[in-house]
């Protein structure tokens, strides 16, 4: 991961903000697990493997028809995910179809259609914060810095417990 040695906002920050920016990178010494080395890298999180409730029955959906020009790029993406250790070959009765999507720059995005699996998986009761409340809270804290993060390839960055993995199989 490369950090800027100086502010990328040259001329647009006052001196105190520029000084804060200069210190920012030194606060995050081990970022190798958080940031990918390239746009196709997943950046596998070093967190506890997540338990996902097992689907109430087997979901096996046949692969959708895909265009010829998607086949090679998608196979390459899957091989990269294997190399990174975030997916592996398996034998399981579960299967969800992939749905290649062409991005505006001509590259391909690997998506998996888990609609059928989601229908048979017990719902999570996680509390989702109200975005307006979060905004009010942030404004009341008067922080110096706010950031937004584009989480690319996020689905594959969270490790799953071994017993949960078979239901996420795809072709």
Automatic annotation (TrEMBL):
<dbReference type="GO" id="GO:0004523">
    <property type="term" value="F:RNA-DNA hybrid ribonuclease activity"/>
</dbReference>
<dbReference type="InterPro" id="IPR043128">
    <property type="entry name" value="Rev_trsase/Diguanyl_cyclase"/>
</dbReference>
<dbReference type="InterPro" id="IPR043502">
    <property type="entry name" value="DNA/RNA_pol_sf"/>
</dbReference>
<feature type="domain" description="Reverse transcriptase">
    <location>
        <begin position="101"/>
        <end position="171"/>
    </location>
</feature>
<dbReference type="InterPro" id="IPR000477">
    <property type="entry name" value="RT_dom"/>
</dbReference>
<comment type="similarity">
    <text>Belongs to the beta type-B retroviral polymerase family. HERV class-II K(HML-2) pol subfamily.</text>
</comment>
<dbReference type="Pfam" id="PF00078">
    <property type="entry name" value="RVT_1"/>
</dbReference>
<protein>
    <recommendedName>
        <fullName>ribonuclease H</fullName>
        <ecNumber>3.1.26.4</ecNumber>
    </recommendedName>
</protein>
<dbReference type="InterPro" id="IPR051320">
    <property type="entry name" value="Viral_Replic_Matur_Polypro"/>
</dbReference>
């Amino acid at each position: 991961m490369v950090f800027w040695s100086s502010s990328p906002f040259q001329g647009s920050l006052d001196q105190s903000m520029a000084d804060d920016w200069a210190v920012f990178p030194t606060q995050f010494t081990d970022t190798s697990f958080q940031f990918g080395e390239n746009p196709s890298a997943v950046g596998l999180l070093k967190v506890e493997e997540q338990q996902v409730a097992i689907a109430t029955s087997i979901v096996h959906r046949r692969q959708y028809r895909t265009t010829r020009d998607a086949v090679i790029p998608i196979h390459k993406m899957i091989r990269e995910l294997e190399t990174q250790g975030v997916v592996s070959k398996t034998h399981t009765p579960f299967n969800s179809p992939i749905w290649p999507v062409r991005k505006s720059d001509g590259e391909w995005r690997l998506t998996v259609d888990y609609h059928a699996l989601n229908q048979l998986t017990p719902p999570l009761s996680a509390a989702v914060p109200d975005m307006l409340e979060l905004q009010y809270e942030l404004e009341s804290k008067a922080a110096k810095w706010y950031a937004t993060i584009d989480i690319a390839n996020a689905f594959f960055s969270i490790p799953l417990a071994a017993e949960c993995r078979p239901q996420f199989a795809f072709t």
